[in-house]
Write a structure and sequence with these properties.
By secondary structure, this protein is α+β, with helices and mostly antiparallel strands. The protein contains eleven helices and 14 strands. The structure holds protoporphyrin IX containing FE.
Length: 331
């Protein structure tokens, strides 16, 4: 459990916002681009302040994470204990695929103009050191619903329980205050989904559509989304923090949900994906996937805000240690 000496986390546990921009970037290989990115890490907090102060009630925040390979070439050893490439699960049509990504930016605010301004400023600083490989502008649909029309985020941990489930503590003390984040961009077949009755949709999700109340155990199928994503360890529920957003382009018939889940280690999210895509037991898979297809997949380590600020000093560590494990303290 994180204690009072834990470094300040990034805005992982900030409340759900109305708007978000999700940017996935790859970094050009070479010392020049790596230097640019390391320096930029130290500028992020100042840019959030510069943009956010102009609209203090809009709750602007930014979380920045790094992929496994990027961590090696940007910062070297030591490495966050559970950072590894995204693990693909499933097969055929029902597959969680891994796609390229060195940096993830999760920019949130209650007004899209702030997200837009911050994304623009962050990218200007990075210049041609990076390529944007995925960009999604997300919104909350009416009363915090996602694209499939259900309220999304109800079972998120809240209050003190949110950092307990998402922020690294003494189990990896060099990286305390950090977190892990998994993202997947899903497209929905809305014609097929809308062809279901509300009762059929409710059995797939495991909750009532209008009221958001959980279905009674007697009628909730074991393959419902909520059953398969509920994980117990020694009688304790392991929660993750989700800030999913709807996105789309009606003119192009594109309707999506951007899944983003934070946790203290990637393991519970990976277990949930296994349950959804393969099934618990195998074959008893998540029927939401009959109407939804994951087109991206990435796993990123989110350093604490303190470590993010200190990363510009990590250049020589990367050059000298590359991917060697080490017990050297970071700060
Ligand atoms: C197509 C993408 C997805 C959609 C539309 C979606 C939608 C929903 C909805 C509507 C709920 C019920 C309300 C709530 O508690 O938030 C829910 C619950 C949940 N989802 Fe998803 N979800 C998606 C993908 C995922 C993925 C990929 C994971 C994890 C790997 C996940 C994990 C969870 C968890 C942990 C819960 C709470 C379960 C509970 O405690 O009852 N979801 N999701």
């Amino acid at each position: 459990m994180p204690n009072n000496d834990t470094p300040e986390p990034q805005a992982v546990c900030d409340p759900i916002s109305r708007s978000a921009i999700f940017l996935t970037l790859t970094v050009a290989r070479g010392e020049g681009p790596a230097d640019t990115v390391r320096e930029w890490c130290g500028d992020i907090a100042a840019l959030v302040r510069a943009v956010g102060t102009r609209a203090p009630t809009a709750n602007l925040s930014c979380v920045c994470g790094f992929g496994s390979e990027a961590w090696n070439f940007l910062f070297g050893a030591p490495r966050p204990a559970s950072l590894h490439p995204f693990i693909e699960v499933g097969s055929g049509e029902r597959r969680a695929i891994a796609t390229p990504g060195d940096i993830l930016l999760h920019i949130r605010a209650d007004h899209m103009d702030l997200c837009f301004e911050l994304a623009s400023q962050l990218l200007i600083k990075l210049g041609d050191a990076v390529t944007v490989v995925d960009e999604v502008q997300g919104f909350r649909y009416f009363d915090l619903r996602d694209m499939v029309g259900f309220v999304d985020g109800t079972e998120n941990p809240s209050g003190r329980s949110a950092p307990n489930h998402t922020i690294i503590g003494e189990e990896d003390s060099e990286f305390a205050g950090g977190s892990y984040v998994i993202v997947q961009k899903y497209f929905h077949n809305m014609d097929a989904w809308d062809g279901l009755t509300v009762e059929q949709q409710e059995k797939i999700i495991g909750r009532k559509k209008l009221s958001d109340v959980e279905l009674d155990a007697a009628v909730k199928p074991s393959c419902s989304h909520s059953s398969l994503t509920t994980i117990d360890e020694n009688g304790q529920e392991i929660k993750i923090l989700r800030h999913n957003m709807a996105f789309g382009r009606p003119g192009a018939k594109e309707f999506g949900t951007y899944f983003i889940g934070y946790a203290r280690t990637p393991a519970p999210i990976e277990q949930m994906m296994e349950n959804m895509f393969v099934g618990r037991p195998p074959g008893n898979y998540d029927r939401l996937l009959d109407y939804s297809r994951a087109v991206t997949g990435g796993l990123f380590f989110v350093p604490s805000a303190d470590l993010l600020d200190a990363l510009p000093g990590r250049g020589s560590a990367a050059a000298s240690t590359s991917s060697q494990p080490s017990s050297t303290a970071i700060k």
